[in-house]
Fold:
Amino acid sequence: MSFLEQVPLYPLAPVLFAAAAVLFVLQMGRHLRVFAAAQPALVTDQPESRLRAAFVHSIAQVRMFRDPGPGLMHAAIFWGFIILTIGTADRVTFGLVHSVLAWPFDGWLWRLLLPVQNLLGLSVLLAICYALLRRVVIRPRRLTLSRDGLTILLLIGGVVGSELLSEAFRIGRHGDPDAAWSVIATPLGTVLASVLPPAVLDLGYAFSFWSTVAIVSFFLVYLPRSKHLHIVTAIFNALFRKLEPRGELPAMDLEAATARFGVKTIEDLRWKDLLDGFTCTECGRCQDACPAWATGKPLNPKTMIMGLREMAVEAEQGVPLVPWIRPSDAAGRSAADGLAAPIVDAAIPYDAVWDCVTCGACVEACPVLIEHVDKIVGLRRNLVLEESRFPSELTASMNAMERYGNPWGQPATARLDWTRGLAFEVPTAAAVAESGQDAVNDLECLYWVGCAAAFDDRNKRVARAFVTCLDAAGVRYAVLGQEETCSGDPARRMGNEYVYQMLATANVETLGRYRPKTIVTACPHCFNTLGNEYGQFGADYEVVHHSTYLARLVSEGRLRPEKADARSLTYHDSCYLSRYNRVMADPRTVLQAVPGMELREMEKSGTNTFCCGAGGGRMWMEEDRGTRINAERTRQALETGADAVATACPFCLVMLRDGLADAPDGRGDGIVAQDVAEIMAASLPPGGGNGRALPVLQRPP
Ligand code: SF4
Ligand code: SF4
Structure:
């Protein structure tokens, strides 16, 4: 305590800090009261996973290191600041921290802490210089130069700098038995003592000490209104993160008479969505990753999250700081007014709601685990189900799904047209079931064809190629044929939960009749919906993507690709396959099993893939804002110089085919887009290994 007694008016320091702490708690309490007005969210399940997430994403900050420079800078500031608060805490607790840490092991713990604090203090100051340089001089596009950001950096720098300086002045003036351990403060203090008289050293000590206490107190009062509140909220955001599969949209009860359909206002969001808003660091990683933003559309996931936070803060204006004092809002607003304000056209423009391809790149990029997609689909649900406000071109596909069970508006009787001309019969589950349930049980898999492969001419060839592989491998399989309807993915992502639930219920009932061991599909959207979302209807299937199934057949030796294909090829990862479901190795395994094939990776691949532009129901919407997303992805594919583009998704296939056809200066001429099943089927020996003729086109025109 002795070194604290050397500070003039020292006893006022804890008082000032305590007053700031009370204001901090009151402001945080006001945030929580707005959270309480929002919808509930379950966050107590799977405690181990939650704790792991909190450690990995909040303590170790692993996602920050995907961008190593800024990641290191952030870690230095974060960890330096945390460790240095030990010294700050000591200043406002009458030296209690020092006494406690100096007590065990004969004072060694405190001595070991001193050099760590000194060196971290220096690294924080250097990191802050770098952060200021980035914001003011380098100015990467994703960062916004805000007064708040600069204020916080200067406050952190002020706390750390003044704390180091006060130690230097104190040691320079009075010495310290542990001075040798303060590896920065002691040499600095020696220099100061050699050039300054004792009175000035005293003054410097008092001034820098009080600067630390004043800045920390101001920081506490300012923090709840700053984006840097993430220092506090990030760990809770990780702890309470969504643990359902990334591709599973929240369930919705269409029967609840009093319920609001979807999200219209702040009050309709779950409290975890509001926590997301208060956790956003405005780093812009989501903006950088967003294909809609990259192609000049008004959608910006970063400003949407910032907008939600601003709306929540706005709603707080009508909430009293002290709970038992009634609000006297000068602007005449009440909390209820703020909570009832519509989100669309406030936090996010109407057009931007429809620009989203639900690719999940924003969610993948966000270092603090913010979920953007669920919020955007929530807004769509409200626009569609309550306001009937959606792009006019969606009417046809929604009606087609409702009436015909597919967005193409084709009759169910045409579902097996793709099998015409095959040299072998494609069995239906109904036909197999006529021989009894044992015959159905004997099937190795049920091939879920999907609407694209059933009705789109280009994708019919993929279905033919895939059953050719199944037939060549001697797999016992069946299809649903006329009993299959759309999985409902497009309807759900368009916001039409009513049509989705109608389709999903019918499919779950149909599948329940056959109880297939394994469902295989070539469509990542069906794969995601059947595997991750039908659980909300009580279903529990093993759903496998066709690339995984083909890779399995190859590894088991049931498929033997022999015909060489001496092309270079780049593989485009579908968002719903790679990012949402982590299937990345299997399609590549299939391609690399083909003799002579050279695989070239695009810069954006795997979980970092760039959308083709067709997800989120955008396959059925006009793209008249900015440039086309498929054109940008095609440009990235052409940059590899590969002879062909492979994919494992029917939507991606169509978008890339169109992108190649429309590529400027004929750069896409002679380059084909193909599904992995087509490439595999083309490589099978004549007869496919079982004596049957292969009916697959070797090279699509
Ligand atoms: S899901 Fe994709 S398109 Fe939608 S906001 Fe996120 S990054 Fe942008
Ligand atoms: S939402 Fe996440 S990625 Fe986007 S700006 Fe905020 S913290 Fe960064």
About this structure: The chain is about 55% helix and 5% strand. The two ends are 84 Å apart (CA to CA). Residues 2-239 form a domain with the Fumarate Reductase Cytochrome B subunit fold (CATH 1.20.950.20).
